Amino acid sequence: MDVGVYNLKYPFRKMIGFLIPFFREISPNRISWSLVPIGAVTAFLYFFAPSAPLLYLLGALFILVRMVVGTMDGLIAVKFQKSSPMGEMINRIAPEVCDILLMLGVVFSAPEYLKIGAIALAMCWAVTFFGLIGLTAGKKIQSVGPVGQTDRVVALGIFSILQLLSSSFGWGLDFIFLFLVWVVIGSFLTLALRVARNFKVS
Q1: Could you give the CA distance from residue 128 to residue 184 in angstroms, rounded to a whole number?
Q2: Count of alpha carbons within 13 Å of 182, Cβ hemisphere only?
Q3: pLDDT digits (tens, 9 = 90+) for 97-140
Q4: Which of 107, 139, 140, 164 lies at 20 to 30 Å from 195 by C-alpha?
Q5: What is the full DSSP assignment across 139-152?
Q6: Residue 128 belongs to what domain range?
Q7: Has residue 64 been placed in a domain?
Q8: How many domains does the chain have?
Q9: How many CA atoms lie within 13 A of 147 on its CB side?
Q10: Which residues cross the membrane (predicted)?
Q11: Are 104 and 122 in contact (CB under 8 A)?
């Protein structure tokens, strides 16, 4: 059984299907590359958010925009038969660049995040690596696990709103720190699941 929110992409695709006509004339590769500036702005928002907590809400909104755009490129490529090997590579590279920028923005936004953040960054890399390593043996990409790329951005959006509420109402909880802790702990389970899937004897 899969663990995580990755499979929710299918109902999400249906939900945003009404946007397809607005993207019809745009190359899927351009849509994919547009994720990079969106990711850079999102990272910028999170970097400065500790001193201006409302930026956490903007950051969460930009995460939603990223998810919409990141889904739309594949929809356009399939629906209008614009798929290509180059597009497949760009579709993989652009979200990874976004993810690196976003995590760096979070980790370097406050000194207290640096130590746990360094571990979280390493774990994020390992999760991605073991998700893709099966390709060398002709196996599918593994997206299973509670701390895959999609899971992380969804969780960060939720933790961001909680962080804003904590700051506004004086709860005294640092939800961004808790997010990083969750990434580290959840990554171990994610890695175990992906390794097991990749090395499973068919």
Answers
A1: 14
A2: 18
A3: 999 999 999 999 999 999 999 999 999 999 988 888 877 777 77
A4: 107
A5: PPPP--STTSHHHH
A6: 6-198
A7: yes
A8: 1
A9: 23
A10: 116-138, 175-196
A11: no
Alpha helices in the chain (DSSP H): 9-15, 20-23, 28-33, 35-48, 54-79, 85-107, 114-132, 149-169, 175-198
Where residue 61 sits, what CATH number does that domain have?
A: 1.20.120.1760
| Nearest CA-CA partner of 69 in 16, 8, 148 | 16
Q: Supply 142's token pair.
A: 């593994």
For 134-167, what is each residue's pLDDT tens digit?
777 777 777 778 898 889 999 999 999 999 999 9
Task: Tokens 């959006």: give the residue.
Answer: 157
**Alpha-carbon span 46 to 176, nearest angstrom:** 10
- One-letter identity of residue 99: D
Confidence of residue 43 (pLDDT cuts 50, 70, 90): very high
Cα→Cα distances 171→43, 167, 196, 201, Å? 25, 7, 40, 49
Let me know if residue 1 belongs to a domain: no
Does 138 reside within a domain? yes
Pair of tokens at residue 4: 């995580």
Residues 6 or more apart whose Cβ sits within 8 Å of residue 58: 45
State how far the Cα of 200 lies from the Cα of 202, in Å rounded to an integer.
6
pTM above 0.85, yes or no: yes
* 150, part of any domain: yes
